[in-house]
Specification:
about 130 residues; mainly alpha; two-stranded antiparallel ribbon; 5 helices; 4 strands; globular
């Protein structure tokens, strides 16, 4: 574990690929929302070549494949569920804060339908219909 630049108690790690950079080890649903929105916008409106669209497609598909493959849960680098990275109906319905149920449900449905369109994922479409 590295030191948080802000003194926070969350796990932070020093990058081995980019010395001097520190990354947070507990990704949230908000972060995934930002990435999925950006991937969709760049794919549809910015990427102006098959190569660029392919790069965006790989990012989006890898993210959604990982979430779907782990039961609609975001796992960290050690294979543990992140604090706020869960969209599984079983986990959402058992969550202590019921206000997150609707928001997280809409998030995963939007991502699944986007991934189904961009990635041509059969699993995304099937999971959406469940």
């Amino acid at each position: 574990e590295g030191q948080s630049p802000t003194g926070a108690t969350k796990p932070f790690f020093n990058s081995t690929a980019m010395p001097g950079y520190v990354w947070e080890g507990d990704t949230s649903s908000d972060e995934v929302t930002g990435h999925m929105l950006a991937h969709s916008v760049v794919y549809d409106l910015v990427a102006d070549s098959p190569n660029k669209r392919g790069r965006v497609r790989r990012l989006m598909c890898n993210t959604m494949d990982r979430i779907v493959d782990h039961g609609l849960v975001l796992l960290d680098q050690f294979g543990n569920r992140t604090t706020w990275g869960f969209w599984s109906p079983l986990l959402l319905n058992a969550a202590p804060d019921p206000s997150q149920r609707g928001l997280n449900s809409v998030q995963i449905l939007a991502w699944l339908i986007s991934a189904h369109r961009v990635c041509e994922l059969e699993s995304g479409g099937k999971k959406f219909l469940e």
